[in-house]
Amino acid sequence: MDEPKVTGTKPKMSTTRKILLMLGFLSTLAVIALITVAVTQNQPLPKNLKYGIVLDAGSSHTNLYVYEWPAEKENDTGVVQQVEVCKVEGPGISGYSQTTEKAGPSLEHCLQQAEDVIPLKQHQETPVYLGATAGMRLLRLENKDAADKVLSSVEKTLRSAPFNFQGARIISGQEEGAYGWITINYLLGNFKQSGWKKFLHSLKSVSETSGALDLGGASTQITFVPLEISSESPQNLLYFRLYGKDYQVYTHSFLCYGKDQALQQKLARDLQITKNSRLSDPCFHQGYQRTINISNFFKNPCTSIEKKQFPFSQLYIEGEGNYEKCRRNIQDLFNKTNCPYSSCSFNGIYLPPLQGDFGAFSAFYFVMNFLNLTSDVPFTLDEVASAVQKFCALPWHEVKLQYHQIKEKYLSEYCFSGAYILSLLENGYEFTTENWQRIHFLGKIGSSDAGWTLGYMLNLTNMIPAEEPPARPLSYGSYVGLMVLCSLVLVSVILLAWLLFHKPKCLQKGIV
Ligand SMILES: Nc1ncnc2c1ncn2[C@@H]1O[C@H](COP(=O)(O)OP(=O)(O)O)[C@@H](O)[C@H]1O
Ligand SMILES: [Ca+2]
User: Fold this and answer.
1) What's the pLDDT tens digit per position in 383-411?
2) What is the pairing mode between strands 278-281 and 314-319?
3) Binding site membership for ATP: which residues?
4) Which residue's CA is the nearest one to ligand 1's atom 21?
5) What parts of the sequence cross the membrane (predicted)?
């Protein structure tokens, strides 16, 4: 039999095959175009940054903070971060009560630093706020006129800076507590969860926030969400709606219970029972000496109720370095005798049962950090107490030798401050061995200092919305990834379909 002749001419392509091939080619082209358009069209725009400045005019000194955030993400949580901090030279603004006109100019150096950090073309639109805390609250009580003049002086300086001046005022203790709480929960990402975290939280009815403990020089604040809300003391309750959730927050600020004023209060009480101008003080190291001028001592609203006449004008303090005695001495500052509510902290102030974790910052952190008590694994209450006891027992000359680089004012008071922190937390707020480790001493969260300033700015610039802002269900990366994946699946399906229904000759049996 004759074999079929293999001719030299190629087999002609059928018209359907040609159309199918064309279609396959065109759909591949369409998919490529689709991906290209998706990638280019949805590319994030170049970062447009915004800035804000807050000055924390504390009792001991003023700090200037510069914050930065991407303009298009303004209402997202956790996007604002601190990019600069500048410590103003000299005392806090309340320290200018005798030379009020110098309060403003003291801020100039730090304002210049802010000018250097923020791009020139954005100076005019950058808001600047100054909030003064307990030092100015005390000055206002002692001498209202001087407090007003200090504020006018700082306002004048801030208005002459190239930024958008938004106000210089004394904030209330309640605000200070609330904004500190907002800051740490914003930075810890507790207000708005994404992905799995959100799903898990929606299973639990409550969203967990962290309490805030702030220790300053002149006041201290405690703020947290209690388990149950009681209307016993409405002045201690605040209501927030943030990112679509309601928060009922307890807060209290104790004026005169910052660590510097607490020491003044303690000395004023000690003075009542001294027979002569010498005072042996268990809260200072053995060998340490300090002289106090009595005539100025009782001008302060934190000590004025103890005012009386003394037959001497100077008090000579000599350190004793005895931690246990110091704790007993300090304990007298917390009056636990009468409580008109179901539960109190001290001085008849309402305190609901403590709840959850606490972030303790400012001087809580500075002191604990100096005593090496701020590691990631929290120390027990006993470990902290014995570390403070050991430190207090060191003679002054040894302390000075060992820590020669630290300012003498701070160094001489770490023993008192350590004991005071333990008294405030243990006797004042009644933290126990069980819940002590729920206190986390923190200086910074990410690049931002823990403190009230960030919360203050977020609030005043309306950057924390009451309702959750509408968000894209997918991030940019996931969107592009999904587009690519879908397109690849589409191409493969078209190819497969073509191969299955119109088997090209080359794939037919026997030809290969
Ligand atoms: N490095 C440090 N070591 C110890 N204490 C510090 C350190 N830095 C700041 N402080 C103290 O922290 C406290 C800060 O308080 P401040 O914010 O000025 O007052 P307030 O908040 O009461 O208005 C002051 O007592 C200050 O002396
Ligand atoms: Ca402060």
Assistant:
1) 999 999 999 999 999 999 999 999 999 99
2) parallel
3) 217-221
4) 216
5) 20-39, 479-501
